[in-house]
Amino acid sequence: MDALKSRWLAVPLTIGVVLVSPKGFAGPPYVTDDPEPVEFHHWEFYLASQTLHDDEGWTGTAPHFEVNYGVVPNVQLHLIAPLAYFAPPEGSAHYGYGDTELGVKFRFVQEGKWVPQIGTFPFLEVPTGSRRLGLGNGSAQVFVPIWIQKSFGPWTTYGGAGFWIDAGQPDEHWWYFGWLVQREIIEGFAVGAEVFDFTPKEKGDENDARFNVGAVIDITDTHHLLFSAGRGFVGPNLFQAYVAYQVTLGPSSEEQ
Asked: In this model, does residue 206 exceed pLDDT 60?
């Protein structure tokens, strides 16, 4: 189960974040991401928390801080700085700084009438958290995905696949597959559902497939609320959830 915890802490919601994302309501609060970067000279700030519960107890972040910046057109810089916790069913709980996430999102195909937008969002999990206390992986991990997205009126769908590599254990690597469908119900309120899967990391492990449902609420053009929750349905029987307050800042279209 250590591998499962490490994977959850390594995927922000996001994952997801979701962390996340980018206009068109993509990325967080979901684990599956999208190819749409933050607009040029725009910022996204998240104050977020994610949690996971399984037979080994509770793990997550409380909170984590995410920053995304559109450094040039079609390119976004990314940082997550988490305060992590691990609370086993028995024994002492632990709380402290977790693994830092650094990434760059790059969109290389623009969306057209029949063509989806396509991009990549590689990131590095820096092992700044304590593995001994259950707050980090203990070695660097790299994730290299390809994301695809297409919108149809109020509907948006996106997803893709990516490859995880554990630098500390080169023989340990696994794939991520995920897809999401999202609909704007009314202006400023969108709901979505995703299904995603981690292939086994080691021999003897089982597939880890999960689903999430969530929503994004635009309070104003600047302030947003994001949340999601779901369970595992193949492999570990677990519960997961994500909630975030997001602030988006940047020049108007006339100022750019």
From this structure: yes
Q: Where are the domains of the chain?
A: 2-249
Tokens 């279209």 -> residue: 253
Give me the amino acid identity at 2. Answer: D
Decide: 147 and 35 in contact? Cβ < 8 Å.
yes
Report how far residue 13's alpha carbon sits from residue 84's, in angstroms, rounded to the nearest whole number.
14
Q: What is the DSSP letter of 29?
A: T
Cβ atoms of 78 and 102 closer than 8 Å? yes
What is the residue-wise DSSP string for 45-87?
Answer: EEEEEEEEEETTEEEEEEEEEEEEEEEETTEEEEEEEEEEEEE
Q: What is the pTM of this model?
A: 0.86
Q: Could you say which of 2.60.34.10, 2.40.160.40, 1.20.1250.20, 3.40.50.620 is the CATH number of the domain covering 2-249? A: 2.40.160.40
Could you read off the pLDDT of 177-193 as tens digits, one per residue?
Answer: 999 999 999 999 999 99
* 38-85 pLDDT tens trace: 999 999 999 999 999 998 899 999 999 999 999 999 999 999 999 999
- Nearest residue to 101 (alpha-carbon basis) of 18, 199, 194: 18
Q: Which residue has the tokens 């297409």?
A: 150
Of the candidates 122, 117, 199, 188, the one whose C-alpha atom is nearest the C-alpha of residue 158 is: 117
Cβ atoms 123, 106 nearer than 8 A: no
